[in-house]
Specification:
Helices cover 79% and strands 0% of the residues. By secondary structure, the chain is an all-alpha fold. It has one domain. α1 packs antiparallel against α3 and α1 packs parallel to α8.
């Protein structure tokens, strides 16, 4: 039976979204600690400027996501809405810098396990950016519908978690290839579904559609990446970097 969202349940809702935001932040820090946040302790060589910018932009998005979630929890909705413009600008930078970084890395990075070519792997980060852009666009379009907006914002951020999960210090994740880093990242969707079932008695349509977009896009990337058409396009695309 669905629970009516009384004032007490509203408090639980704020705790839920804040907890999810913190879990995402912890995962990203753990994943990128050795290659970005704590890099001097593990790698003496410096990062290229583009990767530093990429890390700063994505970290800024997480910081803003945490801030916005905290503002809602503190009932400071006016400040939350005022930061919406900054969120829109930052979301655009996430997509632009994320896409450029993926293309550049396709020419310089080693091929992850499970992929025979960096051009095939390129579908992974590029579709991450596409899915993120779609969900964030939907979140901003429905910014006055809090029930839709907050779910799309959360799921959009979950959608870009595979990169951090793949870098967690557990060899079995990377060795499992896409099944490993996609599968573990998708586990973050389950609490959102459980929350919907607990509070509404059924999954919210925004949760279902966003989760479906994330999960269905994952095997499609592998299929598309192994086509001759994609290899030709990716070859042309990487020539511009």
């Amino acid at each position: 039976m669905a629970i009516n969202l009384t004032l007490e349940n509203k408090r639980y809702e704020r705790l839920f979204y804040t907890g999810m935001a913190l879990a995402i932040l912890f995962t990203v820090f753990a994943g990128f600690s050795r290659t970005f946040y704590l890099r001097p302790l593990f790698h003496p060589e410096p990062l290229m400027p583009l990767l530093i910018l990429h890390g700063i932009i994505f970290t800024s998005w997480l910081a803003l996501f945490i801030t916005q979630t905290t503002l809602v929890a503190a009932k400071r909705t006016r400040t939350h809405m005022s930061l919406g413009i900054a969120g829109g600008v930052l979301a655009v930078l996430v997509v632009v810098i994320g896409t450029l970084t993926a293309i550049v890395r396709a020419r310089t990075a080693a091929v992850p396990p499970g992929f025979s070519s960096p051009l095939i792997f390129l579908t992974i980060p590029l579709v991450d950016m596409l899915v993120f852009a779609i969900l964030i666009s939907g979140a901003f379009y429905f910014r006055l519908r809090a029930d839709i907006h907050k779910r799309l914002m959360l799921l959009a951020t979950i959608g870009i978690l595979p990169a951090a999960v793949a870098r967690l210090p557990f060899d079995f994740i990377l060795q499992a290839g896409p099944v490993g880093f996609f599968g573990i990242a998708d586990l973050f969707i389950i609490p959102v579904l459980i929350w919907d079932l607990t509070t509404r008695g059924r999954p919210h349509r925004a949760t279902v559609l966003a989760a479906a977009l994330i999960v269905i896009s994952q095997p499609l990337r592998i299929v598309i990446g192994n086509t001759h058409a994609w290899i030709a396009f990716a070859t042309w695309l990487t020539q511009w970097t």
